[in-house]
Design goal:
heterodimer; A: mainly alpha; ABC transporter involved in vitamin B12 uptake, BtuC; 73% helix; B: alpha/beta; Rossmann fold; six-stranded mixed sheet; four-stranded antiparallel sheet; 10 strands; globular
């Protein structure tokens, strides 16, 4: 029987399986250079308008990252992420007005409180999947939006809600002392986003990531592998809520003033659309989605074009992704670019081949 | 040893398993019958996916039905599915390691146990290879490796040879025959390929419309008139 032979051959291969190869090292180097350029190049090159926009991109990349964990990793479709973001922003704003705690501590607390809120509201919905889960989360988001519209966002007032109804002498939500200016706060937001991406990476490359992959493909197979599917779904929900809560905290400092009108329920649908377009299976997809969600409207506004056109564009984009590129733009664009490069290279070599006569045919 | 007593499963008005009482002793046992006979339902009961209307199942003295489904896998109930379920997103190694890391076994033995399982099934593929790069036969072997990694007590194989060519079925038969000796687990094989069942199973039980119609040594069961009439057919 070939079993022994198989054991020897696989064991031999196993010794090198955890060593990072050259492509991985190049990839890590490219990502590092790119991040350094974003952190230090963007504030020098961009106007304040675009720096603020890119801060929003950093914030929403965390939200789409969290949504990507739910949709792409576990297969849970949530239409309530904007409401979760609003909870994070509310908690952070309340703590920022009420306490003098350092900003990172506030972000951590906002993340943890939002995580608990997300788990409590999401737990009953975990028995559902697909359209029904999406519907339930949308309804929950609607309910949270109604509550927030009633209690309002904290604005330096007193009491549990911290709301000053007179709307005079409203102080702005403070920022960290090291990141008071817009460029500095942009860097701060990017660093927080990087930490959140690393947190997700630490999950996807380890035991939870494998469990989520199994649950997404086949829940019976996951159960047959001994995976407590309820626990791991709840874990994903907790992680997504935590990250979105932290994003809410960063958003609070970015905009200084929060209003419930800034968190409409229907934005959760647009968020899901751009997350699908960006790509739910890769973390780059979250960045692409945030660029689509925040940078593209800002660009159109700057050009004097109504951002309402984006609704049509996103609709077409989702259609295109669902029919031709399920892994999203983050997967499709590099492949298309590589295809284009190969095509151009072939064309170029043909052109050069025609102009340069072959050595044997010169006489 | 598995002792099944009065096991009954109903889906609405359909009785999928009807008062099934049977003992699977040791080694590799076969479970055969026509489509819809209740074979997969029986596996689903053992795995915890289906709650029976009545009956008990004791596996090595433990009341299996009182355990949560994911705990059964951790305890040692492993299975493959009719439709192969290797996890596409993961590598061969991670597919097998996933089962090990959710068992009661420690991380210290994981790498060795996983490679042992991959080697045991004779899977000639890089452990780092993605599942989507494998052939159908190799994917089946990944599933079997998942079922035998660590210390399984009960291995349920649901039509593992479905769609495989003769050569791969023959290799699979060698692997299945080796499972009890390699792991100490009781193995139950469901398949429509009678040559595979004959080659692997010392004893075999036959279901028809949810009822147990025969059980005993495989050769005798396959000659049983009721079995021939209900399932094998008359030449």
């Amino acid at each position: 029987m070939g079993a022994d032979l198989g054991l020897r051959s696989t064991a031999g291969r196993q010794t090198s399986r955890r060593r990072p190869g050259r492509p991985q090292l190049i990839r890590a180097a490219v990502i590092t250079v790119l991040l350094l350029f974003v952190l230090f190049g963007f504030p020098q090159l961009l106007s304040l308008y675009y720096i603020d926009t890119m801060t929003q991109v950093a914030v929403y990349s965390m939200v789409t990252l969290a949504l990507g964990v739910l949709v792409g990793r576990v297969g849970l479709v949530s239409l309530g992420q904007v409401a979760v973001l609003a909870i994070g922003a509310w908690v952070a704003a309340r703590l920022l007005f009420a306490t003098a705690q350092p900003y990172p501590v506030i972000l951590l607390e906002a993340g943890l409180i939002t995580m608990v809120a997300g788990m409590v509201t999401g737990l009953p919905a975990l028995r559902l999947r697909g359209l029904y889960l999406a519907l339930i989360t949308l309804m929950l988001a609607g309910a949270i939006t109604v509550v927030l519209a009633t209690v309002n966002f904290p604005n330096g007032g007193h009491g549990f809600l911290g709301y000053n109804g007179s709307l005079v002498h409203i102080p702005p939500i403070r920022r960290p002392s090291v990141a008071g200016s817009d460029p500095a706060y942009f860097r701060y937001a990017v660093i927080v986003a990087i930490l959140m991406f690393l947190l997700v990476l630490a999950h996807t490359k380890t035991k939870p990531g494998r469990a989520w992959a199994a649950i997404r493909q086949s829940e019976p197979a996951a159960l047959a592998a001994g995976i407590n599917t309820t626990l791991y779904k709840l874990w994903a929900l907790a992680l997504a809520s935590f990250i979105t809560g932290v994003a809410g905290g960063v958003l609070a400092g970015a905009v200084h003033y929060l209003y419930s009108i800034g968190f409409p329920t229907q934005d959760s649908i647009t968020l899901l659309a751009v997350t699908l377009m960006g790509g739910v299976y890769s973390m780059w997809g979250a960045v692409v989605a945030a660029l689509l969600y925040q940078f593209l409207p800002a660009l159109l506004n700057n050009w004097g074009v109504s951002a309402d056109w984006l609704t049509i564009l996103f609709g077409l984009g989702v259609l295109q992704v669902l029919t031709t590129a399920p892994a999203g733009l983050a997967d499709q664009v590099p492949k298309d670019l590589a295809r284009l490069a190969r095509l151009l290279s072939r064309l170029l070599s043909r052109l050069l081949g025609r102009r340069t006569p072959a050595p044997g045919k010169t006489t | 040893m598995i002792e099944v007593e009065g096991l009954t499963v109903r889906y609405g008005g359909v009785t999928s398993l009807d008062d099934m009482s049977l003992t699977f002793e040791q080694g590799t046992c076969g479970l055969i019958g026509p489509n819809g006979a209740g074979k997969t339902t029986f596996f689903n009961v053992l795995s915890g996916f289906v709650r029976p209307a009545a009956g008990t199942v004791r596996a090595f003295g433990v009341d299996l039905l009182s355990m949560a489904h994911f705990r059964r896998a951790r305890w040692g109930v492993r299975r493959t599915f009719q439709t192969e379920q290797a996890i596409e997103e993961l590598s061969v190694f991670d597919n097998v390691a996933m089962v090990h890391e959710h068992s009661k076994l420690g991380a210290a033995t994981r790498k060795g146990d996983v490679l042992d399982a991959i080697g045991f099934v004779g899977l000639d593929a890089d452990p780092d290879a993605r599942i989507r790069t494998l052939t159908a036969g190799q994917r089946r072997l990944v599933e079997v490796a998942r079922a035998v990694v660590g210390r399984p007590r009960l291995v349920l194989l649901d039509e593992p040879a479905a769609g495989l060519p003769d050569e791969e079925t023959s290799h699979l038969a060698d692997v299945i025959r080796g499972i009890p000796e390699h792991t100490g687990a009781l193995t139950i094989l469901v398949d429509h390929d009678m040559s595979l069942v004959s080659a692997c199973c010392t004893t075999t039980a036959v279901l028809d419309f949810g009822k147990l119609i025969a059980s005993g040594p495989t050769a005798a069961v396959l000659r049983d008139d009721d079995v021939i009439r209900a399932y094998l057919g008359v030449a």
